[in-house]
Design a protein that fits this description.
It contains three helices and 15 strands. It starts with a strand and ends with a strand. By secondary structure, the protein is mainly beta. The strands form four sheets. Strands 1-10-9-13-12-11-15 form a seven-stranded mixed barrel. Strands 5-6-7 form a three-stranded antiparallel β-sheet, with helices on one face. The chain has a two-stranded antiparallel sheet with strand order 3-14.
Length: about 250
Amino acid sequence: MATLAHIFRHPVKSIGYEPLDRVALAPGAALPWDRHWAVAHENAKFEGNPEAWQRKLNFLRGVTQPDLMAIRSDLDEATGRLTLSHPRAETITLDPMTESARLLDWLAPLWGADLPAPRNVVHVPGQAMTDWPDPFISILGTGSLDALSDQAGAPLSPHRFRGNLWVEGWAPFEEFDLIGRTLRIGAAELEIRARITRCKATCANPETGLRDVDTLALLNGTYGHQDFGVYAVVTRPGEIAAGDTVEIA
C-alpha cells in the first residue's frame, strides 16, 4: 500500500523549502503558496506580458548558484511574512513584496557578486512561478530516492529535487509507469501528465549549499536518462495530509 510520506512547498522559486502536514488542493492550481514569488536578476528579459508567467532563466536559481539550495523557509500564511535561514547567513523575517529590498540585500552575498544582481521580486496572482506555465504539482517516489541513494553510496536528501508530494510504497521509478493515470489522495484526485527532467541544481547538498553528488551522471549512467519524478494536475479538489493512502485509479 502506498502512502503520502511528505508534503513540501517552496514559497519563493529556488529559495527555501518547508514541510507541511496537510494542504487543500484546488483543480487546475499549483500547490498553495508554492513558487508564489520569484526573484528576477538584472539580466532578466521578460517576454510578452510582464504580469504573466516567465521563463526560469530570468530568476535566481540553484542550477546557477548552489548556495541557494541550502535556504530554508517558514511562511506565515495569515500575514504573508516569510522567515528564511541559511547556514552562512543570519535568519531574516519579512514580507517579500513590501520589504523586497531587504530580501534582495540578504540574497546578494549568497547569490554571488560575479552573477547578475538580484533585481526585484515577482508575483503574478493566480500563477505559480514554476518551471512551466501549467499548474503542475510534482510527485516523487521515496523508492526512487532510495535507489538513487544506493547508486550514490550515501542517503540523498529529498530537498535536492524540490518536489511537492513524496509517495512511499512504490517500486523505484514506478511513477513513470503511471503517466495518464489518476491518483486519489485524501479527498483529492490528480492526473499524472509527464516525467520531470532534472538539472544541475540537484547536485547541491541542501544542508551545505555545495555540489557534492553528480546526480545527473548517476541518473544517466544507471538509467539512461536524467528524469526524476512526475508532474500532475489536480482534477478533483480536496484536502490531503501526510499519511494518507495513495490509490491508483
